[in-house]
Amino acid sequence: MDLQITTLTGVKRVRTEFVGMDNKRCLIIKFPDESKWGRLKDAIFKDNTMVVRYILEDDIGEIIAFKVKVLLVTTAPTDLIFTSFPTAIQSHDLRAEPRAQTSIAVKLTDAQTNEPLCHCVIIDISSNGCRVSIDKKVLVGTPAMRQVIKMHLSAASDKSIELEGTIMSTKVDEVFRYFGIKFDTPKSEVKQLLKDMMVVTA
């Protein structure tokens, strides 16, 4: 997470880690590394306020921000900041175009060789790109970063639905592997396909 604090020389933004929270009583944040960000103890102290920002890009493409008051700074057993619980949160969409949440089965193949890669599910989509999830237990072929792939979508009609795209990002959790795909298919064609599939992305 990103902390915006006011020092003697002006406003400073530093990065640190979220540790946890005690219900709605307080947030617990790791004190930023002063060897990396410089002296901060004259800015992060009891009763001072700071702005906290966190990017939810992998999930919904959004940044959230809120203001909190420092309740306590500890140095033992480790350097931690205890803050008030936010009473209001602001959010801002990072994506130029909103994505629709979906659950569309799709098969990925290599665009050059037509070699099958894997079956997966599109979990969100827009005319610019999509994000797919793959169960790690059934993953056979793993797409590589910057690999150009073809997406063969399942549809209720007999019409063949195919998109081409490039793997731009990847993420793994305990169950799934996620891939962010940027469409190489012309935007007008993608919009028509989404319309045919009755997927509205605004």
From TrEMBL:
Q: Which Gene3D superfamilies match?
A: Electron Transport, Fmn-binding Protein, Chain A, predicted glycosyltransferase like domains
Q: Which residues form the Type III secretion system flagellar brake protein YcgR PilZN domain?
A: 2-86
Asked if the keyword Nucleotide-binding belongs to this entry, the reply reads yes
**Keyword hit for Iron-sulfur:** no
In terms of InterPro entries, this protein maps to: PilZ_domain, Split_barrel_FMN-bd, T3SS_YcgR_PilZN
Ordered alphabetically, the record's keywords are: Bacterial flagellum, c-di-GMP, Nucleotide-binding
What domain of life does the UniProt record list for this protein's source? Bacteria
Q: Where is the PilZ domain?
A: 94-197
The name this protein goes by in its record? PilZ domain-containing protein
Q: Give the organism, scientific name.
A: Paraglaciecola aquimarina
For this protein's source organism, the top of the classification is: Bacteria, Pseudomonadati, Pseudomonadota, Gammaproteobacteria, Alteromonadales
